[in-house]
Give the backbone structure.
Amino acid sequence: MKLSRAIADFLHERPALEVPLVERKAVALWPEVMGPTIAGLTRSVEMKNGILTVRLNSAALKAELFENRFALVKKMNEALGVPAIHDVRLY
């Protein structure tokens, strides 16, 4: 068994360790997944209890992302490699 798989299995069996790591990874992936333009219009990104909270500088961008929030959740979960995000809140 590869070391990376052993670590993943270890963390998966211990949600108290895995969840904070996934939350940090989701926040770190936001600019990569969304690209530099959207990342530049983002004030902050947080994740807690499966909810990704994004604060934006643009009302138009907020409206567009809200319209596509289910695709956004799917895209972020694919980048994470686990279905950790259940909802996106846009402010």
